[in-house]
Amino acid sequence: MSRHMYFHREIEHLKKMILELGTLAEDRLRRASSILDSADDKEAQVLMTSDWEVDDMEIQVEEECLKILALHQPVARDLRLIVSVIKINNELERIADIAVNIAKRVLTINKNKPASCTFSFDYRPMATKALEMVKAALDALVTEDASLARQIFLMDDEVDQERNRAYKLVVDEIGTSGEGAACMMNLYLIARHLERVGDRAKNIAEEVIYLVEGEIVRSTSDPH
To answer: Is 0.70 topped by the overall pTM?
Structure first.
């Protein structure tokens, strides 16, 4: 097999690996979203103990990238691909970490929620949008679609608006009753976790644009 063919095969293998990691991260986020509805302690514990699979895959992807860089010294678009995959690899691992943090937060709320804390927030629109962003980011990566990647920036605005709504509701509730403040803050922090998922999906979108167009894009960060 020629060196060029060997390099091409390694690149294709790397693409499959990053997509496999993306599938794992998306699965963890979907399960975390389900736990927000069910508040199931057992499911939360199961999700937390499965984090090692994502961590192992992240290490494998990084090692594969470094091997390709060392053996083939890619240039131009091939180099952009490797750089993008290294960064996307990190973002996907963090999305899975956030899913685990959501599960931990649910466990904390279930364990410590006082009877006086009757405040609730419907996370379904926010969780659904965050999942859509991650799926769109992975689709943009697979199809190398910079236009789709740019749409994710607009989707992120919707997630930020939901986060802001959760914050306002929590502040108003604490100001009105003052009871169960710790519980309400934990509920708000779930909204923060979901917002961070949106941020990670947006970062993946930026890397897709860099891969396709060679343009470094940094969208404006939310001030909160």
So the answer is: yes
